[in-house]
Amino acid sequence: MPHLLLKQLPRYECLLEAAKEFPELDPSAAEAFLHLLRTGDEAFGITDRNLGDHGISHGRFGVLMLLWRSVQPRAAKLMGAESCALGPRTPAELADAAGVTRATMTGLIDTLERDGFVKREPDPVDRRMMSVRLTAKGEKFLAQFLPGHFKAIAELMSTLSESERKTLVRLLAKIQLQAAVLQPKPDGVAASSIG
Description:
It is built from eight helices and two strands; from the N terminus they run ααααααββαα. The protein is mainly alpha-helical. It has two domains: 11-53, no CATH class; 54-182, Arc Repressor Mutant, subunit A (Orthogonal Bundle), CATH 1.10.10.10. Strand 1 and strand 2 form a beta hairpin. Helix 5 crosses helix 6. The longest helix has 27 residues, at 27-53. It is elongated, with a radius of gyration of 20 Å.
């Protein structure tokens, strides 16, 4: 479901008129915000359709990527991870990395395990803990899915030059920092993105 339930965005002139009634309304801020939401919805829709065509949800895909990243140190560095733990990860570590509750992560792991993409097993160091690892089926799925996924991302972003992409990332990071200030995360919930 989209976050922005407007078929057409209001013109800037309309925002200026609305600001006369609501002085707190900053027309340029509202215009930028609405475009940010619309763009996010469109980008999400592209990946959502692609994942749906392959029978997987965003949440399940995120878990697979976290696990893939943990066994692919070279790929992890390419994805910007400074350090990655090798091998299986605990459900609690996965929940923290994804920024979701442990109960949500348990549900995601349950369905991935049911479908043969991951396997729970006793932790090699602490037998009281469970670890989660990708199975051969999970690795095969990612090997087949990721090239098309990465191609779709590249096609979407191809309208921007390399310099424009760097500027976009810098600007979005500023908004993310401000969002964190305005709505701090509760204790125990990681702020990192999934996958």
